[in-house]
Amino acid sequence: MSRIVVFGAGGNAGRRAVAEAVSRGHRVTAVVRDAAKYRELAAEGVTLVEGDVTEAGSVAAVAAGHDAVISTVFRADVAPADFYGAVSRALVAGLAEAGVGRLVAVGVGTALEAAPGVAVHDSPEFPEEYRQFSIGHSVENEVYRASALDWVVVTPPPAVLDADAERTGTYRVGGPGVLPTEEGAPAFSYADLAVALVDVATGGDHHREVVAVG
Fold it and tell me: For burial by CB atoms within 10 Å, which of 24, 35, 133, 212 has the most?
Protein backbone atom coordinates (compact mmCIF):
# COMPACT_ATOMS: atom_id res chain seq x y z
CA MET A 1 0.00 0.00 0.00
CA SER A 2 1.27 3.45 -0.94
CA ARG A 3 0.28 6.85 0.39
CA ILE A 4 -0.48 9.11 -2.55
CA VAL A 5 -1.32 12.80 -2.79
CA VAL A 6 -3.49 13.91 -5.72
CA PHE A 7 -3.43 17.63 -6.48
CA GLY A 8 -6.34 18.77 -8.62
CA ALA A 9 -8.49 15.98 -7.20
CA GLY A 10 -11.74 17.66 -8.24
CA GLY A 11 -11.03 17.60 -11.98
CA ASN A 12 -11.65 14.99 -14.66
CA ALA A 13 -8.25 13.33 -14.31
CA GLY A 14 -7.91 13.94 -10.59
CA ARG A 15 -11.20 12.36 -9.58
CA ARG A 16 -10.40 9.26 -11.56
CA ALA A 17 -6.87 9.05 -10.19
CA VAL A 18 -8.25 9.18 -6.65
CA ALA A 19 -10.78 6.44 -7.41
CA GLU A 20 -8.20 4.28 -9.20
CA ALA A 21 -5.69 4.51 -6.37
CA VAL A 22 -8.27 3.73 -3.69
CA SER A 23 -9.57 0.76 -5.69
CA ARG A 24 -6.07 -0.74 -5.46
CA GLY A 25 -5.89 -0.31 -1.70
CA HIS A 26 -3.74 2.81 -1.56
CA ARG A 27 -4.36 5.63 0.89
CA VAL A 28 -5.08 8.90 -0.88
CA THR A 29 -4.97 12.53 0.17
CA ALA A 30 -7.20 14.43 -2.27
CA VAL A 31 -6.18 18.09 -2.49
CA VAL A 32 -8.56 20.81 -3.72
CA ARG A 33 -8.75 24.58 -3.31
CA ASP A 34 -12.22 24.55 -1.73
CA ALA A 35 -13.16 21.36 0.11
CA ALA A 36 -16.78 22.47 0.50
CA LYS A 37 -17.27 22.03 -3.25
CA TYR A 38 -15.96 18.48 -3.30
CA ARG A 39 -17.36 16.78 -0.22
CA GLU A 40 -18.24 13.72 -2.31
CA LEU A 41 -14.53 12.96 -2.65
CA ALA A 42 -14.26 12.18 1.05
CA ALA A 43 -14.73 8.42 1.24
CA GLU A 44 -13.11 5.35 2.74
CA GLY A 45 -9.41 5.51 1.93
CA VAL A 46 -9.52 9.21 1.02
CA THR A 47 -8.60 12.23 3.11
CA LEU A 48 -9.96 15.44 1.59
CA VAL A 49 -7.88 18.55 2.32
CA GLU A 50 -7.49 22.08 1.05
CA GLY A 51 -4.15 23.13 -0.37
CA ASP A 52 -2.46 25.53 -2.76
CA VAL A 53 -0.26 23.77 -5.30
CA THR A 54 1.40 27.08 -6.22
CA GLU A 55 2.78 27.55 -2.69
CA ALA A 56 5.74 25.43 -1.63
CA GLY A 57 4.78 25.57 2.04
CA SER A 58 1.29 24.26 1.33
CA VAL A 59 2.69 21.49 -0.88
CA ALA A 60 5.13 20.46 1.85
CA ALA A 61 2.46 20.40 4.54
CA VAL A 62 0.11 18.26 2.47
CA ALA A 63 2.76 15.90 1.08
CA ALA A 64 4.61 15.11 4.30
CA GLY A 65 4.46 11.41 5.08
CA HIS A 66 3.43 10.33 1.61
CA ASP A 67 5.20 8.14 -0.94
CA ALA A 68 4.24 9.85 -4.19
CA VAL A 69 2.40 12.82 -5.63
CA ILE A 70 0.15 13.00 -8.69
CA SER A 71 -0.52 16.45 -10.14
CA THR A 72 -3.54 16.86 -12.41
CA VAL A 73 -4.06 20.58 -11.87
CA PHE A 74 -5.60 23.13 -14.25
CA ARG A 75 -6.62 26.77 -14.00
CA ALA A 76 -8.51 28.55 -16.78
CA ASP A 77 -8.26 31.96 -15.14
CA VAL A 78 -4.45 32.21 -14.96
CA ALA A 79 -1.98 32.47 -17.85
CA PRO A 80 -0.68 28.93 -18.48
CA ALA A 81 3.02 29.81 -18.27
CA ASP A 82 2.45 31.67 -14.99
CA PHE A 83 0.31 28.91 -13.50
CA TYR A 84 2.35 25.87 -14.51
CA GLY A 85 5.59 27.68 -13.76
CA ALA A 86 4.37 28.42 -10.24
CA VAL A 87 3.00 24.91 -9.81
CA SER A 88 6.19 23.16 -10.90
CA ARG A 89 8.45 25.38 -8.79
CA ALA A 90 6.24 24.91 -5.73
CA LEU A 91 6.14 21.14 -6.22
CA VAL A 92 9.91 20.92 -6.58
CA ALA A 93 10.54 23.00 -3.45
CA GLY A 94 7.66 21.62 -1.41
CA LEU A 95 8.34 17.97 -2.10
CA ALA A 96 12.02 18.43 -1.28
CA GLU A 97 11.01 19.95 2.06
CA ALA A 98 8.56 17.10 2.72
CA GLY A 99 11.05 14.41 1.73
CA VAL A 100 8.87 13.07 -1.09
CA GLY A 101 10.87 12.23 -4.20
CA ARG A 102 8.31 10.75 -6.60
CA LEU A 103 6.17 13.10 -8.72
CA VAL A 104 3.86 12.21 -11.60
CA ALA A 105 2.30 15.10 -13.50
CA VAL A 106 -0.17 15.13 -16.37
CA GLY A 107 1.34 16.69 -19.46
CA VAL A 108 -0.29 18.30 -22.48
CA GLY A 109 -0.41 16.18 -25.62
CA THR A 110 0.28 19.09 -27.97
CA ALA A 111 3.73 19.45 -26.39
CA LEU A 112 4.67 15.92 -27.46
CA GLU A 113 6.98 15.60 -30.46
CA ALA A 114 5.33 15.32 -33.87
CA ALA A 115 8.82 14.70 -35.26
CA PRO A 116 12.15 14.41 -33.44
CA GLY A 117 12.75 17.72 -31.71
CA VAL A 118 9.56 19.33 -33.07
CA ALA A 119 6.56 19.68 -30.76
CA VAL A 120 3.03 19.36 -32.11
CA HIS A 121 2.41 22.99 -31.15
CA ASP A 122 5.33 24.06 -33.36
CA SER A 123 3.89 22.45 -36.48
CA PRO A 124 2.98 25.07 -39.14
CA GLU A 125 -0.64 23.99 -39.23
CA PHE A 126 -1.17 24.12 -35.45
CA PRO A 127 -3.89 26.66 -34.46
CA GLU A 128 -2.33 29.75 -32.93
CA GLU A 129 -5.16 30.17 -30.41
CA TYR A 130 -4.13 26.91 -28.69
CA ARG A 131 -0.38 27.31 -29.03
CA GLN A 132 0.16 29.57 -26.02
CA PHE A 133 -1.63 27.17 -23.68
CA SER A 134 0.51 24.27 -24.88
CA ILE A 135 3.75 26.22 -24.59
CA GLY A 136 2.72 27.56 -21.18
CA HIS A 137 1.77 24.14 -19.87
CA SER A 138 5.06 22.61 -21.01
CA VAL A 139 7.03 25.12 -18.91
CA GLU A 140 6.73 22.59 -16.10
CA ASN A 141 8.85 20.08 -18.02
CA GLU A 142 11.89 22.37 -17.95
CA VAL A 143 11.47 23.05 -14.23
CA TYR A 144 11.35 19.32 -13.47
CA ARG A 145 14.38 18.60 -15.64
CA ALA A 146 16.41 21.10 -13.63
CA SER A 147 15.35 19.54 -10.30
CA ALA A 148 16.52 16.53 -8.32
CA LEU A 149 13.02 15.02 -8.20
CA ASP A 150 12.23 11.57 -9.54
CA TRP A 151 9.57 12.98 -11.88
CA VAL A 152 7.53 11.63 -14.80
CA VAL A 153 5.23 13.69 -17.01
CA VAL A 154 2.53 11.30 -18.24
CA THR A 155 1.11 12.79 -21.42
CA PRO A 156 -2.14 11.75 -23.12
CA PRO A 157 -2.70 12.16 -26.87
CA PRO A 158 -3.14 15.65 -28.39
CA ALA A 159 -6.91 15.26 -28.58
CA VAL A 160 -9.98 15.61 -26.38
CA LEU A 161 -10.14 12.73 -23.90
CA ASP A 162 -13.29 10.68 -23.41
CA ALA A 163 -14.86 11.56 -20.07
CA ASP A 164 -17.59 8.92 -20.33
CA ALA A 165 -15.79 5.77 -21.44
CA GLU A 166 -15.43 2.95 -18.97
CA ARG A 167 -12.05 1.91 -17.64
CA THR A 168 -10.39 -0.80 -19.75
CA GLY A 169 -7.22 -0.98 -17.67
CA THR A 170 -5.04 -1.11 -20.77
CA TYR A 171 -3.01 1.56 -22.51
CA ARG A 172 0.13 2.01 -24.59
CA VAL A 173 3.28 3.79 -23.44
CA GLY A 174 5.87 5.54 -25.56
CA GLY A 175 8.53 8.18 -25.28
CA PRO A 176 8.28 11.93 -25.84
CA GLY A 177 6.67 11.56 -29.27
CA VAL A 178 3.00 11.26 -30.20
CA LEU A 179 1.90 7.64 -30.28
CA PRO A 180 0.57 6.51 -33.68
CA THR A 181 -3.15 5.79 -33.74
CA GLU A 182 -5.29 3.72 -36.05
CA GLU A 183 -7.97 5.46 -38.05
CA GLY A 184 -11.32 5.11 -36.31
CA ALA A 185 -9.80 4.13 -32.96
CA PRO A 186 -11.75 5.42 -29.94
CA ALA A 187 -10.50 8.43 -28.02
CA PHE A 188 -8.27 7.77 -25.04
CA SER A 189 -10.25 7.99 -21.81
CA TYR A 190 -9.72 9.80 -18.54
CA ALA A 191 -10.37 6.48 -16.80
CA ASP A 192 -7.40 4.83 -18.50
CA LEU A 193 -5.25 7.92 -18.03
CA ALA A 194 -5.89 7.43 -14.31
CA VAL A 195 -4.71 3.83 -14.58
CA ALA A 196 -1.47 5.02 -16.16
CA LEU A 197 -0.98 7.74 -13.54
CA VAL A 198 -1.31 5.33 -10.62
CA ASP A 199 0.83 2.70 -12.35
CA VAL A 200 3.64 5.19 -12.83
CA ALA A 201 3.29 6.72 -9.37
CA THR A 202 3.63 3.33 -7.70
CA GLY A 203 5.95 1.63 -10.19
CA GLY A 204 9.60 1.90 -11.08
CA ASP A 205 9.70 1.66 -14.86
CA HIS A 206 9.93 5.38 -15.62
CA HIS A 207 12.17 8.05 -14.14
CA ARG A 208 12.84 11.69 -15.02
CA GLU A 209 11.18 11.59 -18.42
CA VAL A 210 8.18 12.56 -20.49
CA VAL A 211 6.14 9.53 -21.57
CA ALA A 212 3.23 9.45 -23.98
CA VAL A 213 0.26 7.23 -23.17
CA GLY A 214 -2.69 6.34 -25.35
Answer: 212
Chain centre to alpha carbon of residue 172: 17
Q: Which of 145, 163, 201, 212 shows the shortest CA–CA distance to 29?
A: 201
Buried b (16+ CB within 10 A) or exposed e, 74-91: bbeeeebbebbbbbbbbb
The structure's pTM equals 0.96
What number of CA atoms fall less than 13 Å from residue 209's CA on the CB side?
A: 13
Q: What are phi and psi of 80, to 5 degrees?
A: -55, -45
Q: Which of 138, 171, 155, 125 is nearest to 13 (CA)?
A: 155
